Amino acid sequence: MAYTCTECGHSNPKWLGRCPQCQAWGTLEETGPAATSVRTKAKAAPAGRRAAPITGVDGTLARARPTGVGEFDRVLGGGLVPGAVILLAGEPGVGKSTLLLDVAARAARASARALYVSGEESAGQVRLRAERIGALEDSLLLAAETDLGVVLGMIDSEKPDLLVIDSVQTLASSDVEGVPGGVTQVREVAAGVIRAAKDHGIPTILVGHITKEGTVAGPRLLEHLVDVVCSFEGDRHSRLRLLRTTKNRFGPADEVGCFDMTETGIESLADPSGLFLSRSNTRAPGTCLAVSQEGRRPMVVEVQALVEESAAGNPRRTVSGVDGNRVAMNIAVTSKYTKLGKHDVFVATVGGVRVSEPAADLAVCLALVSAAVDRPLYSRLVAIGEISLSGEIRNVPNVGLRLAEAARLGVTNAVVARGALENVAVPAGMRVKECETVIDAIDVVLTGAEETRPVWKGSRAPGQEAPV
To answer: Where is this region: Lon-protease-like (predicted)?
Structure first.
């Protein structure tokens, strides 16, 4: 008998408590007779598959073709490449099927044949969604099928220009043992679909389920076989959806696309920064702007903090949209200025955006101090910098790009790390101050005396009052 790991697909002739390949515990399951070892003999390559000089290879066959969905094309590196296989994973109900149905309809609208295979919903349910988002096209072919052999037959007969399979865990092959979604079935389904996509040059999008840990369900081999791995993220209580790439053979692997989930479908957000700022123009204590960079896109977000005396013995630390570990470190650093040990601290972002990079540390620290002393910061102030345990402000990448994005949204004041403005063009109308420590930054934007402040770099002339 053979035992196969449900996480990575590793096969072992005897049962083990721990998989020797992925080190997961309790994942080896009995799958059938052990395969006999066979040595593959060398053979001559066919005429059309022989090695050729790289200069003679036609590179136009790997050119990306736009889908019409701007943010989707941005993440993929320009569009869909013929023969490319894309794995799109996400939580249930986040909008994966709606997004791909819109992509397939746009392809059909551009005189292409698109085949949408649904293994989770009936054809009638998919049509109702298509009516709601305006995706009814004659060139959009729809099939509700879960048999891999039938799907491969459809591909051979219809010869579509785009293939969408929703989802890879619902398809199964009658020639392979195992339940749909199991390691053996997912491996066979992925291999069959990828082989058909490469042979016919069809761009294919596979929808994948995720586990409770947030990883793609099935063997890890699935992510290695496909060309692009994307994750579709979003909060159920927010309209914002983010499409991230973790692997991309045709473009950058760190790009992020933003979408707005509406009643009529999913719309691309070319400028999402406005969603993450509060509408109020009043200066409130405990608020500061930060610039988070998602992939190559800078986004201005608003960080809010609330500090209250704790009525219980153990003060609470509650965060939303930010990293709790980094907030705890920022609280410890700012305790040199104001004591927060016996206070409840709440830190959140506006609009449901998640900020995980260290560039928002300075904004969190300034918001905490502002909330603790109940005094507002400068109006339209953005803080960019990472905070060390000693309170030093460290520089972060792409400061010029972040300042330009903040200036575009009307931000006029900024605080950055010492030396961050070297070889950086300060946007016109913006006053930027370089600070070495958190205490220096607090002294500048909250409590400092005018005589001891260094001159701001930017459009502010020497001796000019700092804006309040």
So the answer is: 344-468
